[in-house]
Amino acid sequence: MFTLIFRIAIIILIHIILFAAYPDTGKFGNLYFFVSIFCWSALLVFVSRLLNAMPLLGKFLSTLSVLIIYGITIAATAYLMPQTDKVSAYDKAMKGNIPNWQTFKRGLLRFGVDADDLQNKASNAIEKNVDKAKDAAVKEIEKNKKEADAAKKAEQKQSETNQDGKSAK
Predict the structure, then answer these.
(1) Model's pTM, two decimal places?
(2) Distance between CA atoms of 151 and 48, rounded to whole angstroms?
(3) CA-wise closest residue to 15 among 2, 4, 31
(4) Does the pLDDT value for residue 169 go beyond 60?
């Protein structure tokens, strides 16, 4: 059951990536998004159940068929996905019109993900953690330096004590 849910999640992820990469889907884009997810998930469930009913085929064939379904899902969704300029995402990709980061960010906004906000939060968190790590490293270096100085003084004192003991003899 978990495997099936995971496989359906991958179908949803494929659609999210494609729709974020090519966000200009027009007025029927959202409808196509949900209907396509439903249809590909139903096909995946059907094929998974069919293969589970035939244990002789084994895990390899089951995994291979699921991977083939993922590939067909990517190609068919990209080819059939509505676009406002009437050129499919598949044709755009084949002509080298690969979406840039700005287009992808605009596509993520339709799913409620503000990429700039996430990027700023991540940058702030990274800077904060780097500053903490830097402060901890500086403190550790200072501590090690003090310990080394103390050990050096103790060694000098021991050396002086040994020399005084030798000269007294």
Answers:
(1) 0.66
(2) 69
(3) 31
(4) no
Same domain? For 126 and 85 the reply is no
**Complete DSSP assignment for the chain:** -HHHHHHHHHHHHHHHHHHHHS----TTHHHHHHHHHHHHHHHHHHHHHHHHH-GGGHHHHHHHHHHHHHHHHHHHHHHHS--TTS--HHHHHHTT----HHHHHHHHHTTT--HHHHHHHHHHHHHHHHHHHHHHHHHHHHHHHHHHHHHHHHHHHHHHHHHHHHHH-
Tell me the mean pLDDT in the region 100-111: 85
13 plus 55 within the same structural domain = yes
Assess whether 107 and 124 both reside in one domain: no
pLDDT at 166: 63
pLDDT at 168 over 60: no
Q: How far apart are CA 118 and CA 115, in angstroms?
A: 5
| 35 & 61 share domain | yes
129 compared with 159, residue with greater pLDDT? 129
Expressed as residue numbers, the domain containing 17 is 2-113
Mean local confidence (pLDDT), 41-70:
84
Separation CA 20–CA 118 (nearest Å): 16
